[in-house]
Write a sequence for this structure.
């Protein structure tokens, strides 16, 4: 039996651990187009010079030996033949598999802006370590002191942190009317905007880049849809990632936005699995399939895929979006659906002394939470969402600073803590 895994990051590593838990003997071969394992959330600290390259890995040094796996570094998978059960590598080698796991993650979106060409120097994305290494070289060689970031989502804000730590002045250009628009509302965003201003940076909202101006393949300026032109030699394109589904073309593997999987993380082709940022698995709150491109989802999905590949039937019960990030020294946590578009949600809000809490409730169940500068007791909200507990009796307490496990009535606590001898 050979398990073949494409991609070697969060989902793959979880899958490998899980396969080995139930299957000590089968062969595991991993193909990766990169040269090391590293944590993507840490690349902004690498850019900042706060974390060295040798500290970016999140697996022990002897992981490959311990797990008895063969890793083929710098070896991209080029084509899958799901009928013959083979994968063709970029060096034209054909590798057979019995079970295949696709965890190729996401690829940065590159907008087709007028004047944009891949070979213009000074334009970077912010997803892969290799790209960040090139960015650092570019900054140092050209003595960059200012830059523009297109996109104020999580990746754009992470890039902003790294650049600010290098004393580079930033201008963020964003289509929406706020930072982190997928999760934050205007009040939450204002807390970050203040910090940005303090750092001498600028936030240009409700506009985008209309034209990229370059000379001799060097970035010179950007024309915005607002009519403004900004001179700059560095642009970070941080407008999101999309599932890296290229390999599925012509294979019969069903693809929507990401690779569609069932609750065993198996695709429509038996024996072919997908997990992580590339997969479209169950979203807990809606019960529909969705791509949730975050670390904990990749880890859980990889674990479930690995168990099923090893023959241990395991179900993925779905997860909801969650993010815990500290940006510009402002800690924030968000869970679930935070900006509902319809009126059938109740919103509880508290905003005092720079601390912001927002709780989104539907049919007496919490479905979303945003906490900014007030994250001390965040965990309990995640649990309340997961347990789908009726909070109608607790609404007055939910926003209080001392709201936590201990203020919950006994009946509620029972749902969280169980086990012999546990007093709830
Ligand atoms: C800057 C940044 C900050 C982030 N911060 C957070 C955070 O704070 N919290 C959080 O929860 N999440 C965060 N994320 C998201 C998180 O890193 C991802 O959800 C997670 O890495 C997904 O893991 P994965 O295994 O699915 O894919 P990835 O980590 O994307 O790995 C996929 C791997 O597959 C390889 N690959 C692709 N195609 C092929 C091929 N054809 N052949 C061989 N190999 C291939 C890729 O090179 C890559 O190494 C962040 C992401 C970025 C970019």
């Amino acid at each position: 039996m050979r398990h073949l895994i494409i991609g070697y990051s969060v989902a793959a590593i979880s899958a490998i651990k899980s396969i080995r838990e139930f299957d000590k003997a089968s062969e595991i071969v991993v193909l990766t187009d990169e040269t090391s394992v590293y944590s993507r959330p840490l690349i902004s600290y690498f850019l900042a010079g706060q974390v060295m390259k040798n500290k970016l890995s999140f697996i022990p040094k002897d992981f490959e030996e311990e797990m008895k796996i063969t890793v083929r570094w710098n070896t991209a998978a080029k084509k899958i033949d799901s009928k013959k059960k083979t994968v063709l590598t970029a060096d034209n080698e054909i590798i057979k598999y019995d079970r295949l796991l696709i965890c190729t993650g996401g690829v940065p979106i590159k907008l087709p802006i007028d004047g944009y060409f891949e070979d213009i120097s000074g334009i970077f994305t912010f997803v892969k370590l290799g790209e960040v290494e090139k960015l650092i070289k570019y900054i140092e060689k050209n003595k960059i002191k200012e830059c523009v970031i297109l996109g104020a989502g999580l990746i754009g804000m992470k890039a902003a942190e790294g650049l600010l730590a290098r004393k580079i002045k930033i201008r963020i250009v964003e289509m929406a009317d706020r930072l982190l628009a997928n999760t934050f509302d205007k009040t939450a965003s204002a807390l970050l905007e203040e910090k940005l201003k303090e750092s001498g940076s600028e936030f240009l909202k409700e506009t985008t880049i209309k034209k990229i101006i370059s000379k001799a393949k060097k970035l010179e300026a950007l024309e915005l849809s607002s009519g403004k032109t900004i001179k700059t030699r560095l642009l970070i394109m941080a407008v999101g990632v999309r599932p890296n589904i290229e390999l599925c073309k012509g294979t019969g593997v069903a693809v929507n936005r990401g690779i569609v999987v069932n609750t065993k993380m198996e695709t429509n082709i038996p024996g072919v699995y997908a997990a992580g940022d590339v997969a479209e698995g169950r979203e807990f709150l809606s019960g529909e399939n969705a791509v949730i491109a975050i670390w904990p989802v990749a880890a859980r999905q990889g674990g479930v895929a690995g168990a099923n590949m090893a023959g241990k039937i395991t179900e993925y019960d779905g997860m909801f979006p969650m993010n815990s990030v500290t940006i510009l020294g402002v800690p924030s946590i968000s869970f679930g659906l935070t900006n509902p578009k319809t009126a059938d949600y109740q919103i509880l809000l508290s905003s005092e002394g720079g601390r912001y809490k927002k709780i989104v409730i539907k049919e007496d169940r919490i479905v979303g939470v945003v906490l900014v500068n007030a994250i001390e007791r965040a965990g309990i909200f995640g649990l309340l969402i997961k347990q789908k507990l009726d909070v109608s009796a607790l609404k007055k307490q939910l926003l209080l600073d001392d709201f936590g496990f201990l203020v919950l009535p006994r009946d509620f606590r029972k749902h969280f803590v169980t086990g012999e001898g546990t007093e709830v």
Notes: The chain has a mean pLDDT of 94. The chain has three domains: 2-39+58-106+243-309, 123-239, 332-416. The longest helix spans residues 295-309. The pocket of flavin-adenine dinucleotide is lined by residues 6-12, 31-34, 40-41, 43-44, 76-77, 103-106, 126-127, 154-155, 158, 244, 247, 276-277, 293-296, 298, 323, 325 (CB under 6 Å).
